[in-house]
C-alpha cells in the first residue's frame, strides 16, 4: 500500500507540473496573439520631410567597402533607408526582420542601413549582427535631412527618389506597413485607416498605438 | 517541528532562489533597458543608475546563492527586504501616476507593466519568505523523498508565478486593444 501511494503521488506531481506547463504555453500563445492582432503601422512623426517630397541626392561612403552609395535620385529600384544605432536594443531585435525583408523584396527594393555613430562601434555592430553584405552608411547629415529623431526609423524612397512612406519602426508589421502603404498608393497605413474609418463613419480610430 | 514545515520552507527557498536568479539573468541580459527603466522611475541621480543596475544584479545573485546555501535564514531575510524595497519603489512610482512604467521584473515573459498586481505579488512573496524564516535557521529536510517533494513544490510555485505574470501581461494587451477600439 505505501509503495502504491508513493507511485500515485509521484504521478500526480508529474501531472500537475505538466498541466502547469501546458497552461503556461496556452497563455503564452494567447499573449502572442494579442500582440499580433494589434493594428500596426509605422508611426509617422516626421516634421522635416513629407511623403512625396524629394530630399537632396547624397553620395556616401559604404562602411562595408565597395562603391559609394547614392541615396535618392533616379534609380531602377525603390530604396529603403533603415536608420539604426549600435546602442539601440530595438534596432538589434529588428535586424533579422530587416534581413528577411531585404531578401524577400529584393526584386524591387534596394536596402541601405544608415547610422550616426563612431566607426568602431559600427564595425563592431556589423560583425556582431553579420551585416557585411549590406550597404551601410554613417552620416549625420543623412539622418538630419530625413528628420530622423527616434530609432529604428525607416524611409522608403521610390524610383524617382521621392519619399513614398516613412516612420518609426518597432516590429515586422511596422516595417511591412511601409511596403503595404506603397502597394495601396497611400502615404502611410494611418492615412489608409483614416480613409477607411471615414468611409465607415468611425472618427476616433487610431491604428498606431502599438508604437511605444 | 513537523517534517512538512521543513519541506515547505525548502520549497519556498528554492522557488525564491529561482525567481532571483531569473531576475538577475534578465537584468544582466538587458542592462541598457533596465538602466533606462531606472531613469523612468526617476528615483536616483542619473549618473548612479548604471551602477545601481550592476549592484542589483550582484545582490540578486548573492541572494539566490544564499537561499540555496546553509545560510538559508540570511538569504530569506535579504530576499524579503529586497522585495519590500522593490515594492516601495513601485508604490512610489504608481503614486506618481507612472502606471505604464515597466516594472523590470520580466523574465521569461518579457515586458511587464506596473500595476497594483505587482505590489500584491510582492506582499505575498514577503509573507511566504517571512513564514519560511520562522521554520528553521537552515535546511532540515530529512530524506530524499522529502527533497523530491520540496523540488516539485518549488517547480509548481515557479510555474504558478510565470502563469500569473503571463495572465497579467495578457490583461494589459487586452486592455490596450479594448481602449483602441472603444
The total of helices of chain A stands at: 6
Instruction: Report the helical percentage of chain A.
Output: 40-55%
Number of strands of chain A: 7
Integer-rounded radius of gyration of chain A: 23 Å
Strand order of the largest sheet of chain A: 5-4-3-6-7
Largest sheet of chain B: none
Structural class of chain A: alpha/beta
Global shape of chain B: globular
Category by helix and strand content of chain B? mainly alpha
Dominant shape of chain A: elongated
- Say how many strands of chain B there are: 0
Helix content of chain B: over 70%
Mean pLDDT of chain A: 78
Instruction: Summarize the main sheet of chain A.
Output: 5 strands, mixed
Distance between the termini of chain B: 57 Å
String of helices and strands of chain B? HHHHHH
Distance between the termini of chain A: 60 Å
Overall description:
Helices cover 44% and strands 16% of the residues of chain A. Chain A is an alpha/beta fold and 212 residues long. The C terminus of chain A is likely disordered. Chain B has 6 helices and no strands. The longest helix of chain B is centred in the C-terminal third of the chain and has 38 residues. The radius of gyration of chain B is 17 Å and the shape is globular. Classes of the chains: A alpha/beta (212), B mainly alpha (182). Chains A and B meet through helix 1 of A and helix 6 of B.
